[in-house]
Design goal:
Layout lengths: L1 H19 L2 H4 L3 E7 L6 H13 L4 E7 L19 E4 L8 H12 L3 E5 L10 H7 L14 E5 L2 E5 L7 E2 L3 E7 L13 E7 L2 E2 L7 E9 L10 E8 L5 E5 L12 H4 L1 H16 L28
Parallel strand pairs: 1-2, 1-3, 3-4, 4-13
Antiparallel strand pairs: 5-6, 7-10, 8-9, 8-11, 11-12, 12-13
Length: about 300
């Protein structure tokens, strides 16, 4: 009887501990690192916008790490990638040190989560392994030696090895997004087609083209200065154990308040779902009520999603 009483007391104590344990400990946030600091785009605004989007979801614990400025000492840039579930790249600038590049590749090879955001796919044209990590890139001297163009003809992917520079875009505008894989965790439940807010539509991108799942494409209207082809815009990358989410959308505006491509509810939903998937392999987020429709774009002026 005495032994039973002791057992009962221990059980009651443990139950009390579980009940009083903070809720945040049960719902561990995803550790995310945003890398920025150099870019031919407005990185001073874009990395802040990305952090706002992630923070306001209550899913992520976010750190920002800025590199030295252009021409600075990259030996001082030494991220500890291993302590993060997902790394978001908002960077296009000077090469990292050899040790940092190797650490990043090792992080990816071990199954790290990576989000390639917009002009981050302009970076490191001469770094072979990085180009495998992003699958497709543009500018910075990319050409037929960098790999084929990839685009769609009648919904089928084409690898085009013809000569030509890599990377271009027409005039900024709203444009339809076309879903190419409805059952992927990132796209599940989202509309087949919806209008993205005013943005650059990247086209003529080229590289190893090791796309695993093409999620969304868009038509680069020739009358607006585009390629006249259906171009890949959102996809995952086939790179060993890594979970890599590449989103070409999100050209940053002049300020947080005037930033339609990043204020787009569709863009934010994809960034959040893509980052969660890259970190965990799953997506638990519901479809937000303000998601764009096939008729109109939807902007979040405060970057915060409405409460369902």
């Amino acid at each position: 009887m005495q032994k039973f009483s002791k057992f009962l007391l221990v059980a009651i104590f443990l139950c009390a501990q579980l009940i009083s344990f903070p809720a945040s400990a049960h719902n561990k946030r995803i550790k995310a690192l945003i890398i920025s600091g150099q870019n031919n785009h407005n990185w001073r605004v874009s990395h802040r916008a990305l952090k706002l989007i992630l923070d306001q979801s209550d899913l992520f614990e976010v750190d920002i790490l800025l590199t030295p400025g252009r021409g600075g000492d990259m030996q001082q840039f030494n991220p500890d990638f291993e302590q993060y579930d997902v790394v978001l790249l908002d960077y296009n600038g000077d090469r990292w040190s050899a040790s940092t590049e190797q650490a990043f590749v090792e992080y990816a090879r071990k199954g790290g989560g990576i989000v390639v955001y917009h002009a981050a796919n302009n970076a490191f044209a001469q770094w072979e392994e990085f180009n495998k990590i992003i699958a497709l890139g543009g500018w910075e001297g990319r050409n037929e030696k960098s790999g084929p163009y990839y685009y769609l003809v009648n919904g089928v992917g084409v690898l085009d090895t013809s000569e030509g520079t890599g990377g271009s875009h027409g005039a900024q505008r709203e444009f339809p997004m076309n879903c190419r894989k409805k059952k992927h965790p990132i796209t599940k439940g989202l509309p087949d087609g919806w209008i993205h807010a005013r943005d650059e539509l990247y086209d003529r991108m080229r590289g190893p083209a090791n796309i695993k799942h093409l999620l969304y494409s868009g038509y680069a209207d020739a009358s607006k200065g585009g390629s006249g082809r259906e171009e890949p815009l959102v996809f995952t990358v086939d790179y060993g154990k890594a979970r890599i989410f590449h989103i070409m959308l999100g050209h940053c505006g002049e300020s947080l308040d005037n930033n339609p491509a990043m204020q787009c509810a569709g863009f934010q939903t994809l960034i959040l779902r893509g980052a969660e998937w890259a970190a965990t392999g799953k997506v638990k987020q519901p479809v937000p009520t303000d998601f764009p429709t096939s008729e109109s774009a939807s902007l979040r002026r405060s970057y915060k999603a409405p409460q369902n």
